[in-house]
Write a structure and sequence with these properties.
Shape: globular
Strand content: over 45%
Order of helices and strands: EEEEEEEEEEE
Oligomer: single chain
Radius of gyration: 13 Å
Mean pLDDT: 95
Largest sheet: 7 strands, mixed
Number of strands: 11
Distance between the termini: 37 Å
Number of helices: 0
Helix content: under 10%
Amino acid sequence: VQLQASGGGLVQPGGSLRLSCAASGFTLDDYAIGWFHQAPGKEREGFSCISSNDGSTYYADSVKGRFTISRDNAKNTAYLQMNSLKPEDTAVYYCAASAYYRCSGFQWSLKYEYDYWGQGTLVTVSS
């Protein structure tokens, strides 16, 4: 059972990146998917979630309107499109899967609500 996050890198302010979260060993469409970030010296914070059943999405205010979470169950993969990136978005980004199925059914921004984690991918926003 594994989640593999990828797609991070160095991008200039205002730029875009697309992160992927590929699952192996289990069926991703049975799980709600969350994205977290962790800046140096800070706690890991959840900022987005996508439900399994209806694909409903949720965002923290800090990323609303800039980031888009999505999933392709046929590919067993979730995605995070990040636009209008800011230096304060610099962090390691993690995807996670929760058996709660629907984001509205649990506290999706809390890390202990998730069952599986990817290894993290570093996003650096700098000129």
